[in-house]
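Summary of Year 1 activities. Much of the first year was spent building the evaluation harness for sequence design. The harness presents a backbone, in tokenized form, and records the residue chosen at every position. We chose the following record to illustrate the format because it has been used consistently in internal testing since the harness was completed.
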């Protein structure tokens, strides 16, 4: 599938690196993809889902959040709220240069971010989450061993997925102050929740909470046998195919 590198300004004016995956033929709709915590736009699941959606005629913009991957900025200065605003900035860029995203897809913490951002993005009709936590503070368990140092010194360097990251107290304060129930209940957009019963990173109970808060139209798909990162190609392709089929009901006539 054709793929184009793009740079656009994030919420704080930093240059964010993105990739636009497009179909070989006509574009039926545009989607925006948000990657998982400390991941990048090029993680296997993001690339495979974008490829799968493009095969179904849906162009996908996936980007690195501020301070990650090829994007500018310092990760230590970011938090969940800044990720949400980066998503809003990405949607605004798409609306101005391409077309407003009709579909937003978020993986893990990116799923929580799209739930929080979708209400601020014109044109979004369908929202999909994959292994998303119901509470952004869920990610704090990943660096619980450094919690005392962060509280005492204001920051600490932690290792996540084999890479060092600096976590500051403002990040903890932000995720702990965020409540998702109102955002999900007030979404007023079609919602599709993917979650694996065997997810060892984000327990499936999170999906039950999100589904319970959401209003119809809402759907749930069990990714039985998949891991949190959708590391098997077949699982990522399945997610893309289901999103493409499900989203047709919510796209404008003629798309």
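For this record, the design step produced the sequence shown next.
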């Amino acid at each position: 599938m054709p793929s184009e590198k793009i740079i656009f300004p994030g919420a704080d004016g930093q240059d964010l690196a993105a990739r636009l995956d497009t179909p070989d033929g006509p574009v039926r709709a545009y989607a925006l993809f948000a990657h998982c915590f400390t991941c990048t736009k090029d993680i296997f699941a993001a690339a495979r889902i974008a490829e799968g959606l493009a095969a179904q005629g849906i162009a996908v913009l996936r980007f690195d959040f501020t301070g990650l991957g090829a994007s500018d900025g310092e990760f230590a200065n970011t938090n969940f709220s800044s990720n949400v605003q980066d998503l809003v900035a990405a949607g605004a860029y798409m609306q101005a240069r391409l077309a407003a995203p009709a579909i937003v897809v978020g993986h893990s913490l990116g799923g929580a971010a799209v739930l929080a951002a979708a209400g601020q993005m014109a044109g979004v009709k369908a929202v999909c989450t994959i292994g998303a936590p119901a509470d952004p503070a869920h990610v704090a368990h990943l660096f619980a061993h450094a919690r005392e140092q962060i509280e005492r010194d204001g920051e600490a360097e932690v290792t996540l997925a084999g890479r060092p990251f600096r976590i500051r107290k403002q990040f903890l304060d932000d995720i702990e102050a965020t409540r998702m129930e109102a955002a999900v209940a007030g979404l007023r957009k079609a919602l599709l929740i993917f979650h694996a019963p065997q997810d060892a990173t984000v327990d499936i109970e999170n999906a039950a909470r999100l589904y319970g808060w959401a209003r119809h139209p809402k759907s749930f798909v069990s990714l039985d046998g998949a891991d949190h990162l959708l590391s098997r190609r077949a699982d990522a392709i399945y997610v893309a195919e289901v999103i493409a089929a499900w989203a047709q009901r919510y796209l404008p006539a003629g798309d």
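The chain has a mean pLDDT of 95. Quantitative recovery figures across the full test set are reported in Table 2.
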